[in-house]
Specification:
single chain; mainly beta; 6-stranded antiparallel β-sheet; 5-stranded antiparallel β-sheet; 2 helices; 33% strand
């Protein structure tokens, strides 16, 4: 699998047994040791002067896609988790036609894989965007 990993790229990453966290790959040197390749990540909301995490390459999710700003203007495509749970429990919901992604409001990350209240509530993001 080919990956185009580069400085400035938005990623999800894990530290130990943590949930997914949001960060940006920092320009600089990766570290290589007997455990793997470690990439410097700046956590979302931090600067390189405040905090840097080194994350093993296999603990990176690199398929984030920047969300278009216009999507936020359409309530049927962009909603909070709570609004989405109400939608999937409504008569208007059709699982066979649904295609939705977890988002932090800036980037789309991974698809909603289970259309259940429990699964959605466990996700570390506050928003969902539907793709039609």
């Amino acid at each position: 699998m080919e990956r185009n990993i580069h400085a400035g790229m938005r990623v999800l990453y894990k530290q130990g047994n943590s949930n997914w966290m949001i960060g940006t790959i920092m320009e600089g040197n990766a570290e290589i040791n007997t455990s793997g390749i470690y990439i410097p990540i700046i956590p979302k909301g931090q600067t390189a002067e405040e905090e840097i995490h080194y994350t093993e390459l296999n603990n990176l999710f690199t398929d984030a896609v920047q969300l278009n700003d216009w999507v936020k203007d359409y309530k049927e495509y962009y909603m909070t988790k709570e609004e989405y749970i109400q939608f999937i429990e409504s008569e208007d919901f059709n699982k066979a036609l649904e295609n939705a992604y977890m988002t932090d409001g800036e980037y789309m990350y991974y698809p909603v894989s289970k259309y259940t209240k429990t699964w959605i509530e466990k996700q570390p993001f506050d928003y969902i965007t539907r793709v039609c």
